[in-house]
Design brief:
Elements (H helix, E strand, L loop, with lengths): L2 H21 L18 H8 L3 H9 L1 H6 L6 E6 L1 H4 L4 H8 L2 H10 L1 E3 L5 H6 L4 E3 L5 E6 L9 E3 L2 E10 L2 E6 L10
Parallel strand pairs: 1-7
Antiparallel strand pairs: 1-2, 3-4, 4-5, 5-6, 6-7
Helix pairs in contact: 3-7
Amino acid sequence: MNVRNLVTLGACATVGALSVCSAFSKDLTTSGPMSTASKQDIINTLRSKGNFHKMLSGLEQSYELDNELKGKGPYTVFAADDKAWKKINQADQDTLFGNKKKIDEVLRYGVLKGQNLDSDQLYKMQGKEVQSLEGRLIKVGMTAGEKEQAFLWLNDSKVKTPDIRCRNGIIHIVDAPLMPPLKK
């Protein structure tokens, strides 16, 4: 083996070791794995989660909203993952995603601008309504019981994963897309 191959092999070993070390890095405040979501904007956080293809596809059609959610914020986003979109039959999804104006309306309905509401704040708002970026109201509810056992609801969508913090806001993953009454 010549010197050039040894240098290349050494560089590869160093890069590999750094990759392994960063994969096992610990957050010193929680002793858990380090989160990169708090350093990313909302769009890139959704991309890194890997199961938001349908929503990201709609956001790409809604270019202005896509760019807005990369901006300063803060935003509270109620994001439907791919499994949640399957609750809408395929023909209706095709119609919705085939109409740029309608998909923009639906996606804006799941965003609160100028607010960074975590689950504790939303629980305190039970029975109230919040105004979406689309302009219509979303009702905040909770199932009966203690907070630790209760579920947070937004209209008819249950929050299944709350409080994903991002650089410019917070994401709550819902079990069904929030749907406004669509304009004609």
